[in-house]
Task: structure prediction
Amino acid sequence: MPGDLKDGRIVIVGASLAGLRAAEALREEGFKGSLTVVGDEPHPPYDRPPLSKQVLLGQATAETTGLPMRRDPDAEWRLGVRATGVDPLVKQVLLDDGESLPYDRLLITTGTRARPWPNQDEGALDGVFTLRTREDGAGLAERLAAGPERVLVIGGGFTGSEIASACRELGLAVTVAERGPAPLVGALGGTLAKLAAAMQRNHGVDLRTGVTVTALHGNGSFTGADLSDGSRVDADVCVVALGAIRNVEWLADSGLASGPRGIACDAGCRAFDMYGIVTDDVFAAGDVSRFPHPLFGYQMLSLEHWGNAVEQAAVAAHNMVSPGPLRRPHLAIPTFWSTQFGLNIKSVGVPTYSDHVVIAQGSLEARRLAMVYGYQGRVTAAVTVDMAKSLDYYRHLIETAAPFPPPPGAADRAIAADIPLPSDVPDPSVLSHGPTVALTGYLPDRRLTAVQPMR
Amino acid sequence: MQIVVDLTRCQGYAQCVFHAPEVFELHGEEGLLYATAVPDDQVERVREAVAACPVQAILLGKEVSGGAR
Result:
């Protein structure tokens, strides 16, 4: 019957983690109508985090990273088909095979893709990789297994750092070129990034900071690169790890509020149209979305986090089949992790939404610590290194807007916690890669919009 | 069978490493790596690991079967 939210036609565009979890959740929530999932990759949903870790280390193959189902979503899977547009008036998704899919409600989970090397000819050299898809992972793993002389990683964000870690574990020589002052600086700020730099150098990474790569060389195959400081790196494999681009181009004529920073939506995952009016039949979740979060000044948050894709998909699915008063907001505290150089780095909150930090537990020297981030006198984030069990405690401080520096009991060293250091969060526009958390609005005292200048 | 570990939840208790050491492995003190596809002869051990995980972070299940139509 019309108006029955548990029935009708739902189309999900995007067949990765968020798309799969939303499809499962729709059935769990009692949706009994027709469900179609469209994905431009030919594969059923697979997990990406292992691609920069286990797969490069040879502990798993890229082909075996398929995501397990929690339940069969009983969906029609349209894989290997690209969506090319949305007509919101007649409520149809257009596909590149010429077909169109009618919908009553649409969920967009098209995520991001790797930012390619800006010079197309140089990027096409044999031996130059990005790392986002299963094919990327398989291709790079094969090249690393063949034992290259040296690997050049461009960009010291999480992906670049994890690749460098894998290279060292495989015994390969690796150079990391990072435009900022240290690896991970865009996500963690300058203070903790100093530890990241030390960690890389201690593991034998040839880390070059404050430099950009100006040209890739090769005659068919990659042989080396020029750096902005005038030096040259000879290498036979190059990984371009310059962050991600949100897959929104196909929505250009849709009338939705989509742009390079993602699709703007409300806290209930409903997409805004280009006038800022909320739609009631188009939803967005995962990396491609941006949404307001009250704990971080209602700024729009764009997150490239595995956990966010899972949680936001569940909220979107719930709201797609629930009437207004029963809908719920996606206001989870952002969380992410990275495993590199034998360290487990975990974050809760938004470290870039900060002005100061304190080391509340452990120390840089011990390579084991909990760093707490504050903004204007309250706790806004925490990052742990090999101290994951502390994270829930700091999550609680963030949720309750606890005062910063953190109260007694939050630190094992009272003196250290009394001396906040600048968190030293850089302007994202000077980084070589997109930070994995972007505040896409403004801070009162600093502009933190993620401008991506053309290189 | 496939597994995925919600590493947002994982706190490095390493119960899974104890129950199924051929599938789960620590990278350093508390970083977890795991075989994404579980060999048939390891499924029972992984089931034990799933049950033993203090934060219930391991999901064991079938892969999505739906291919292109």
Summary: The two ends of chain A are 54 Å apart (CA to CA). Chain A has ten helices and 30 strands. Residues 450-455 of chain A have pLDDT under 50 and may be disordered. Chain A touches chain B through 46 residues (CB under 8 Å).
